[in-house]
Amino acid sequence: MTTDIKLLSSADVFLENDIVRLERSAFPADIQLGAAEWSAERQGHHDAFLLVLNFALRQVMDRLGNYDIWLLTGDSVWQADTRIVRYRKRFNSLKMRGIDFEAISDRFESMIEEGGKLKFFGAVRLDVSVFSTVPLTMTPGACTYIVAKPKGNPWEFPLSAGWSGKWNNDSQLIAAIAAIGGIAFQRFGFFDDPQVGLIGIGSPATLERIVM
Questions:
Q1: Which superkingdom is the protein from (predicted)?
Q2: What's the predicted TM-score (pTM) here?
Q3: Which residues in the chain land under pLDDT 70?
Q4: Whole-angstrom distance, CA of residue 67 vs CA of residue 103
Q5: C-alpha distances out from residue 125 to 39, 51, 60, 103, Å
Q6: Which residue range forms the structural domain that includes residue 184?
Q7: In a domain, 1, yes or no
């Protein structure tokens, strides 16, 4: 069975469009952001999202050859401050759930502490060997983004500040990624939604390189 992947694009996410509309007031006044969407019908194919993910990320790899692809993952809820929670951090916690990135050495993580509770956030550089693992981190309500980032750029992911997994709440993160020519991706489509896919947000010029 073949799966048709549909591609949409918008040059301005602050105006009405068919992908996502962001709050202008949440972002720096001088920033321009566009969006791209890759989607497929869920019906008849239980791996529809993985097919979309592979297609979109291979487009990035083919057309943005000097970029790395990273997964940003974090805790969506505060955890009790216990010895075992501190030991596991983010990636060991994922490993306990069968989500294993141990084979990749480019992994970073950090802890946030507030009111006696903890959250962990991490970044791991992806390669093709772990693409099939990525959907396991992109569950409903997850604090997860995929980021295409220019190789060698000194800007670092804000692990010590964390993120929410919501576009408008994470406006500083999204704006910083776009400012270095990067793209932030997030999954859409869960439960009974007929379509699943990825939305990518970045500068219109960067997005044009992968969708045109």
A1: Bacteria
A2: 0.93
A3: 1-3, 44-46
A4: 20
A5: 24, 20, 14, 11
A6: 6-211
A7: no
